[in-house]
Every structure is written in C-alpha cells, then in structure tokens.
Specification:
mainly alpha; about 75% helix; about 0% strand
Length: about 90
Amino acid sequence: MTISGLLSAVLVGLVIGALARLILPGRQAIGLLATIAVGILAALVGTWLTNQMGIGDAKGYDLFELIVQVALAVIGVGLVAGALRRSRT
C-alpha cells in the first residue's frame, strides 16, 4: 500500500467513524485511534459486502455503500464503547 493509499484510508476511517459517533446516541468513551480503526474496518467490510452483493460500485463511491459503511461503523463504535465501559467497571 502506498503512502497516499494509507493516508486516504485513515481519512476515510476518520470520517466514517466520526459520522458513526454523531449518529450513535449518548457519549462514547472511545478515543480517536479507536474511532479511526473502527471506521477503517467498517469501510473495508462495507465495500467488500456491497461488492459481494453486486450493489457496490468498484470504480467509485455510491450512496448505498456509504450507508452500509456508516451503519457498520455505528455498530462497531457501540460494541467498542460497550466493551470499554464493561472493562472499566
């Protein structure tokens, strides 16, 4: 992976993770790195999933793919925040 590819993955992960934290109600006690990691993972899985379903556009971004990625990120942020909350108590 090139430097520009890595940088774009981090930026996309940050945006998708931030959108997930905005959508998810309440306060999430996870840090920026965890948000980026969840966002990157959600972006990769969402892209793969929509491509497997034949819905995703391999040449660019489409709205359905973005919705799937953000939905996966919301689930991921919720799971990570819940796991961190349980580990602190």
